[in-house]
Amino acid sequence: MSFTSIFNLAALVVTLAAVCGWINHRWLRLPHSIGLVLIALAVSFAALMLDAVVPALRLESTVRDTLTQIDFHDTLMTGMLGFLLFAGALHVDLDHLVSRRWAISTLATVGILLSTGLVGGGTYLLAGLAGLDVPLPYCLVFGALISPTDPIAVLSILKKTTVPATLEAKIAGESLFNDGVGVVLFAILVAVATGGGEHGAELTAGGIVRLLITEAVGGGLLGLVAGYVAFRAMKAIDEHNLEVLITLALVMGTYALAQQLHLSGPIAMVVAGLFIGNRGTRLAMSETTRDHVEKFWSLIDEILNSLLFLAIGFEVFALTLTPAMLWIAMVAIPLVLAARFISVSVPILTLRLWHDFTPGAIPVLTWGGLRGGISVALALSLPLSPVRDQILAATYGVVVFSIVVQGLTIERVVRATVRPRT
Q1: In the CATH scheme, what is the code of domain 72-417?
Q2: Which pTM value belongs to this model?
C-alpha cells in the first residue's frame, strides 16, 4: 500500500470517528465508545440493506475492499494496543492492585484457563447438537480468544460508571493482565488446531507451561526495567516536551523489543504504565511535566479508543450474514456469560476463605467483564478454514452484546447487587 493510500485511509477513518463522535455527543449522549459502536453498526446495516435493494451501488464490496486494506489484527495488536494499555495503566492506582493481588492474579490466570475450557467444551457440544462440524481444538481456540476481558473496553466504561473502589480495582486489574495470558494461550491453541505453527515445537504440557511463564514473567520484567530506565531519564531533567517524548519512546521501543524477544508486549506495557503512573509522576516529574504527560496520554487514549470502537462497528462487513451465523452469535452470548460466571465464582468463593470481598462482587465482575477489539482482532487473525466464519460470527455477537448491552447496564447491576459496605 502506498503512502498516499495509507494517508487517505487514515484521513477517512479519523473523519468518520470525529463525525460519529459529534453525532453521539450532540444527540445520542451515550458513553462515547458505545455510541460509536452503535452508530457504526447502524451505518453498516443501512449500507447492507441499501446494497440489497440497489445491487448496482456495490456498497458492500466497496466497504469490504476498503476494510481489507486495514489489517485489523496487525493494526490493533502491534500498533494501537501498546499505546492504549500504557495510557490505561497510567491512571490505575498500584496500591489498590497490590492489596488485591491474589484476586486479580487468580482471575487473570485460573479464571482464563477455566473459562477457556468451559466455553470450548460448551461450544463443541452445542455445535454438535446443531449439526455443525467444529473440531474441539477450534472450539478451545474460540474459548481462548473470547475469555479475556478487554482492558480497552473495560477501562472505557469504568470512566463513566460509579463502581466501589474495591471492585473497580479488581475489574481493572484483571482486564489489564488477563489479555496477555489470553493472547499466549490463543497462540498455543491455534498451533494445536492447525497442527504446528509458530509454537509447534513447544506443544507439550511442559512446553506450554514454560511458554506461558516465559512470555508473562518476561514481559513483566521487561516492562519494569524499561519503566525504570525511563523514570531515571526523566528524573535527571525538567523539560516537559522531552519527557513526553521519553514516555512515547518507552511505549514504542518496549513493545517492539518485546515482540522481537517473544515476550508479552501487553504485560510489558501494563507494568511500564503502572510504574510511570504511580512512581514516575510523583517522583520524577514536576507539576508542569505531570500535567503535560497526563493530558498527552489522555488525548492519545481518547483518539485511539474512538478509532477502535468505530472499527468494531464497521467490521460487520467482515461477517458472512446468514441465518446460521446469526444463530451461532445468539447462542454464544449466554454460553460465554455462563462460563464467565463460573470462572469468576470459583476463584472468589475459594479466596473468600482467606480474604473479604465486596458484597455483589460475583455478579458485578461477571457482567462487567466486557469483551472488545482484542477478541475481534484475534478472530480475524485465524487462518482460513471451514470454521473461521463461525468463530468470527460468535466472537462478533459476544463483543457487540458485551459493549452495548453490558456496557449500558453495568451501573444498574452495581446498584442492584452491591450493598452499602465497600
Answers
A1: 1.20.1530.20
A2: 0.91
